[in-house]
Amino acid sequence: MFCDEPTSGLDSFAACRVLEALRNMTNNGHTVLTTIHQPSSGVFAMLDEYEPPPSTTF
Question: What's the whole-model pTM score?
Answer without folding.
Answer: 0.73
